[in-house]
User: Fold these one by one.
Assistant:
Number 1:
Amino acid sequence: MQFSYSNYYKNPKQNNAMHEVADVLFPEGHTERAYESILKWPAYTPTNLISLDDFAGITGVANVLYKDESTRLGLGSFKALGGAYAVQRVLEDREAAGDDSPLTVCTATDGNHGRSVSWGAQQKGISCHIYIHAGVSEGRAESLAEYGATVHRVEGNYDDSIAVCIKEAEANGWQIVSDTSWEGYQEIPTQVMAGYTVLAAEVIEQLGGNNTTQPTHIILQAGCGGMAGALIAYFWKHWRNELPTVIVMESAMSDCVYESMQRDQIVLVDIVDETLMAGLSCGEVSALAWPILRYATSHVLTVGDEGVEPMMRLLANPESERPAIEGGECSASGLIALKTMADHPELAESAGIGADSVVLVIGTEGATDPEVYRLIVG
Ligand SMILES: Cc1ncc(COP(=O)(O)O)c(C=O)c1O
């Protein structure tokens, strides 16, 4: 089966000499503090980096390294690192300022970020309100309530749920803990992103430290781009001019990075249809991620949903000795992008993907909606 794609963009602004924008996002000490804090969490353990030799064979590359976030902190996605860490930081900063007034946190989410915030809030004994949009599945809504949060369903798409969350936060004096940022709201999303960098630190460690085994390509799926921005920033601080080629993959139904790259400014995309890859359904690039994506991304690829189910099944049913992997809808992203590029030689050539390539992909979630997973994978 050949995969098709919607749009492809080669970014003329990509420039490794711009790596200092990563130091602007994360000044000295930021990611180190996140790493030291999260390592102390009782549930913490690094997730596996797995070689998908069967998939490397299918796509004709030397190796595909898959970071498996399905086991992350018992929450089933990399998002567990960000929201919960930001909640902890809000509390620490208030404590340092001598503020002991009662705290309530809130956020908009399409599932995984909200789970992280509500889990973090529950552990600290604080109230939490979560705003979900009309397209979020009932299974995801239930998993949010599991951690004691009050869940509010809002009409419209993800961006509408953010607008309601902001309004309610202002009316009630709640603290927003969002994974995306906007003008005037950046400190907390920076902490969320700092939490995500623990994933990147683990990858570097698993690759064997300094430049011993370096991927040639990194494929990152984007919703608001918070994950991509955070991981690239960490990798850029580590590899500087030697940053592997970065390919950002998006759903064509929420292609805000693609549209923003084309116009060289942040563009709000109106999401009309919801992709199966629910976590990628976001209409606007995070302001914090933008400078990183703008200068680090080599290529952007946007695709429909056709590859999601076959790639989830492939992860679950290895065609080699590698372990079976529980990969949710968003975890198919990197595989879809690589397979699409291998299926279209002009794309592979443009991105320099070939027989010597070592491609890092991020399996960002497990069966975060168990019912959808069961229907697809069986
Ligand atoms: C499983 C999963 N993968 C990828 C993403 C994309 O992350 P970001 O919105 O930071 O780009 C999300 C976002 O919710 C997600 O839940």
Number 2:
Amino acid sequence: MFTIGKLKIKSPLFLAPMAGVTDHPYRTICKHFGAGVVYTEFVSANGIIRENIRTLEMMKFSEDERPLGIQIFGDSPDVVGKSAKMVNEMFKPDIIDINYGCPVPKVTKSGAGSGAMKDLCLMDEITAAVVESVNETPVTVKMRAGWDKDKIISTEAGLRLEKIGVKAITLHPRTTSQKFTGQANWQLIKELKQAVNIPVIGNGDINNVDDYKKMLESTGCDAVMVARGALGNPWIFRSILNHINNKPEEYEPSLKERIEVCRNHYELLKEDKNSIVCLNLTKKHFSWYLKGFKGAVEWRRKFMYANSVEEVDELLQLFEKEVN
Ligand SMILES: Cc1cc2nc3c(=O)[nH]c(=O)nc-3n(C[C@H](O)[C@H](O)[C@H](O)COP(=O)(O)O)c2cc1C
């Protein structure tokens, strides 16, 4: 167990923020399988201060998702600071996380997301504005290694962020120019962990229990954060938890369990979204869940061609009958 500020973290398994993915239904599923801390996707500070309805929707969560972090991004210290205050008062998350990792040019060009990797003074100012606006709620940061391979700044940035009052840092040790290519350089997580006294959460390329073990051993990080390895595979959290609790490791769900998760996820989406969004997200998640069994390609294709939630309902019932 470790703490982020005063928040006690019981499980060192974090579900990463993922745009278009980590909404209330998916977070609920991952939590069920053992994710210890979950995050919203990144939310625009500008959208928050304008009280844009869709932006505010992205931050809603239920009590059983706690501990939960809301991740925000922006380029203006004043706006990001104000947005953090609003988020804190309106939603009372357990953590407010600042995104310094998004590599998308539309975001970075003004200095937001991993654009801050190029301007540590701006990063300092944004972070200080957030820390000052939220009293007790711990502020954390998720960042990359640097802008490109000639400007690796994660350790220097970490030391500056700690001084400003950040309570934990997640490092995804790829550069902005790498985007998602190549391998994450875990050595930089080790370097950061040795340099700072706040918890360091290691992120990048954890796809199974072995990766978890290697990340912990090679970096000494306090917790790990999983993103792509959990797409269609919330069982990754159960597998890692099994390892932590000295139980048999890699959890391989039966086809029946896979379909049960499809059903649960779909029901949660129906409750949470309008039918068009529900249909699109069902297709997206099902294309990840429905892999690795005989007939998977055909079932994926059927769901992909569904034109309505009613069709999804029928298909799911057929699928359930076939397996039971
Ligand atoms: C679909 C998708 C959406 C993402 N959205 C966000 C986001 O909103 N905020 C963020 O900090 N990182 C985001 N990321 C990056 C991940 O959180 C993570 O840092 C990265 O994928 C590396 O971890 P992994 O190797 O476990 O996937 C996203 C990644 C993916 C694949």
Number 3:
Amino acid sequence: MAKEPRLPRRERTPRPAAGGPKPRRAGPADAPGHDPLPAPLRAGSAPIHDALLGWFTRVGRDLPWRRGIDPYRTWISEVMLQQTQVDRVVDFFHRFMERFPTVERLAEAPEADVLRAWEGLGYYRRARQLHAAAKRIVADHGGRLPSTAPELRELPGIGRYTAGAIASIAFGRAEPIVEANSRRVLARLAAHAAPLDGTAGDGPIWEIATALLPPRSAGLWNQALMDLGATVCTPRSPICSRCPLAPHCLALKTGQAGAIPVSTARRTVIDLDETAVVVRRGAKVLVVRRGVGEWWEGLWDFPRLPAKEILAPLGCGRRRVVGTCSYTVTHHRVAVTVAACQASCQGPRRDGVAWIDWEALGTLAMTSPGRRIAALAEREGGMVGRPAAGASRPRRG
Ligand code: SF4
């Protein structure tokens, strides 16, 4: 990394007041007699801070949202990084920032445009909540993100981790974070060998993260923990020989580096089957919008059988199978049979049902299985109509 990531001067963590450290908010770790840190870490926390912050200065990852810290960019990147790998997020981040460079532009955009820009990142609930939060920030906070974790947590889609990340990285607040990478590093550093699954399992790690937070540079510390977990203290094969925390790491000392964090049973994968129908009428194709509470709520897709109320009035001819595909969502593995048929009429108007030119499918905010089904139908089934002049957004009916 060419340059040390630095917070703007006005956003650095304030120095402790003369005569003593900056007071921390009380938490479980502050209860009398309770200290979540094993004694060796408690005694060595200053060298631990120096070691990790020094390492981060030298080799921390050069990521686009770290170049010139800005609360809006930090927020967008942190939401994108929830459940999506950094490498995948970089391109999406650039495109999203080009499309919505300010919170005002995001707030005023139609939801369909936000979902379209989110396409490929998955977990569309995040995009919907991001959009709702942008409206709140403009309406209630004059277009500026709140700077404290409690205020940030009032916004849709911002939980404890994201609030801590924004407050510490963008505003220099002394807030801890716990996400997949830092959780693993902290658990190993403290040789915390209890299972970490679920919110209850994370409780002790939040206490360790809070107790180990440096008095200054919390934002850099948090980013350093995440980088160390992503590049050195990896899930299966931690590279302890290259780790700046090796002299302090209790898991390494006790031969548990590969065994921590401890996990309880994996979630069982559920197999599902479904049949998607690509209904054509001339150059047009039928699409349906995913309903409230469904996966990919609000995005367009092809109907799944039985869908009698949608398909029955269309006078469809014989269905023929054009291929199969599959997708995974949460802990479900779904096998899709793709069928195609011709409709003889457009049927009655219905909310959430539309006919669209095949060539205009690309302009729709569509589910990832929908895109896969469209590609398969186009390849295998000869579903393509010629580009329609003025191909447009779907009309109801
Ligand atoms: S010494 Fe090994 S197990 Fe411990 S924090 Fe470093 S990489 Fe992880």
